[in-house]
């Protein structure tokens, strides 16, 4: 986050750099005109130093501007004004450029060369975000997904921290850990006690899974949590304490996202917890054993849930950490919510590694392709509810229509505990390439389903699709425009 003092220095430095370049003055020439050293001018332009009144007057005289024009954080020449407005906005507090290795002084150097053109581009982005009601948390979440992609969603420092914590606390033995064991670690190491009753006494707090009261050093857990969810929350609290993550949310699900660091620390704590519950080396071996089978084994896949006592989402999210470490980098993760009547499907989470893969969330109120295993598995689950409350698994080769991309999709679905008539599915998709063919023995199994799929019905031209929920209206409009141009070209040829 840019502090006010830093902002004043950045704006002042940017003005000096821009005006010096406008006058074609070298550092040496400006140094001679103002009596300031070359190194001092460099520090001013990079936003590191703010000069005295006497030096500002000398700079104003050398650059041919008024003193007030230099020191004002609002006033600026027309070409500089868009950048000054940008610096004064919340953009750089909103988007964490430092996490992506972007230095502010480098960015200002780019701004100073073509501020009007560059800011026209940024202005376009701002207009899009406003028109489509993109909120701060949308920026933060998109930035986090990009941050995960940048690191292939594998964070060695968090893996090592987990191993270090286990060594320091002499944590050995077989998995899974019990809630009582993790609770004892919190009590003995951090003097944190657990309360499983008070949250349940307030109906409005039923949606809150947990809350940490830092004044009482007490972690409140809701009564409806299963042991897998409890273990994950207890592991997260261990992470917050052990890693010293101060900027954080005190609820499990962030209700008010103040800044990107809060979201990032929430991710780090969740990663640590998953790594604690699902050991990296053991998990990699379990995945390898499943991939080496000659047939897709849904029972073995679901068996990992009970082995580690984790939820389907925790398991597949952990797989997105392990697969890149195994050399499988091109993958996606999606979570689909299915309403009670299965008339509405929403993609509520997605992650893409190495590239933007074909399945993606749509905010255009369109109908997701029902050929996805992520949706077909929800229909299978609906057919056996309420006979079962346990998760089911399925696999499919999904070939994206009019695209060379094929994915091995592994999916798990389960009823929602808070609303058993509704359900969710989580899916990990692995791009079928030479690396995957070498590692997955059941990839060419005859019994493994292979279907053409698309993103939404409105944009799909798959003929005679039995799962289609609406005509391809977007595609039809595009074809109408294309036909207009074809007819116009024919008119030219007649002449």
Order of helices and strands: HHHHHHHHHHHHEEEHHHHHEEHEEEHEH
| End-to-end distance | 64 Å
How would a textbook summarize the main sheet?
6 strands, mixed
For the biggest β-sheet, the strand order reads: 5-4-8-7-6-9
Number of strands: 9
**Helix- and strand-based class?**
alpha+beta
Low-confidence stretches: none
Tell the overall outline.
Answer: globular
Rounded mean pLDDT is: 86
How many structurally independent domains? 3
Helix content: 40-55%
Alpha plus pi helix count: 20
**Rg measurement, Å:** 28 Å
Notes on the structure:
There is one protein chain. The chain is of the alpha+beta class and 495 residues long. The chain folds into three domains: 4-134, 434 Repressor (Amino-terminal Domain), CATH 1.10.260; 153-277, Orthogonal Bundle (Arc Repressor Mutant, subunit A); 280-478, no CATH class. 49% of the residues lie in helices and 12% in strands. The chain has 20 helices and nine strands. It has helices at 4-22, 27-34, 38-45, 53-63, 67-71, 81-88, 91-94, 104-113, 115-131, 136-150, 156-168, 179-190, 227-243, 260-277, 280-291, 298-308, 312-325, 373-384, 434-439, 473-494; strands at 193-195, 210-213, 218-221, 331-338, 345-353, 392-400, 406-415, 423-431, 450-453. Strands 5-4-8-7-6-9 form a six-stranded mixed sheet. A three-stranded mixed sheet has the order 1-3-2, with helices on one face. The N and C termini lie far apart (64 Å). 32% of the residues are buried.
